[in-house]
Amino acid sequence: MTTPALHVQNVSHSFGPVRALDDVSLVVPRGGFTALLGVNGAGKSTLFNLVTRLYANRSGVIEVAGHDLRRQPTEALRRLGVVFQSRALDADLTVQQNLMYHAALHGISRARARPRIAEVLAQVDLADREGTRVSALSGGQVRRAEIARALIHAPELLLLDEATVGLDVKSRAEVLALTRRLIADQQVSALWATHILDEIEPSDGLVILHRGRVLFTGTAGEAAAAAEGDLTRAFLHLTGVPG
Asked: Is the pTM of this model over 0.90?
């Protein structure tokens, strides 16, 4: 399909006098990994909050799999799975109880939810943790359980906002590898918001966001090529952020 998984066009957003996003446009193609790269405060979370309708977009257009978020919110949102930066699971409940609750929010019956929960937990390598309380999981396991939660209704697009924050090196690599595997095996698309450059591969789509403005769109390899093959140097040059 040629319709992108996510199309954002000329979107701005302000908090009083502060302009958090300024005429932002980007595309996430289907079946791809797109990194949204920016330092803290660049506007990444604000953009995610608009795409998920936590904030209402009053300017521009946001489309999820071809469905306009303002005109067709139900159709747009049911194609979207989200892993927020803040933890979203109830630590006192088991993994299965958390996913069962989330399935109910999407109108999935208990009879249908049980096999679906088993399926998504297998996809994130947590099949043996279904009955474990979230409080007993490691940080990396919690993140993988949250990805399973985001997958429960079979979305076409995953939004992951700083999904590796607070994780050790091993867990960070596992969550990143899992996301890439889901793209390859499940034909989902992903918008991966991060400030960590070494999470990005040359073939990945790349959007550099800084102070609410898009400074670059293309592939990470293309950005690096403009700075003698060094993505870090390219990022610092574009943003003016001190090294």
From this structure: yes
